[in-house]
Design goal:
single chain; mainly alpha; globular
């Protein structure tokens, strides 16, 4: 699956690409808190992940301002 661009993992339960499972585990093991809900080191780390995700999605879809990328639950 290394050459695939996999955008629909939230809507499926099996099988996740290895990179997704590893990333989720890293998050749970080292951060594990919600973004935008605190002013402490792990909350800032979660905020950074969301910001980087928005930047990468903006670049992928040709959106000039990453703040225009909205991440919601239940929407793929």
């Amino acid at each position: 699956m290394e050459d695939e661009l996999y955008l629909d993992w939230a809507a499926t339960s099996y099988k996740k690409p290895k990179q997704v499972a590893e990333g989720v585990m890293r998050y749970f093991e080292s951060i594990g808190v919600s973004s935008g809900r605190g002013a402490y080191k792990r909350a800032f780390a979660a905020d950074s992940i969301v910001h980087e995700c928005r930047k990468e999605a903006a670049a992928l879809f040709g959106v000039g301002d990453p703040a225009r990328i909205v991440l919601t639950s239940g929407a793929t």
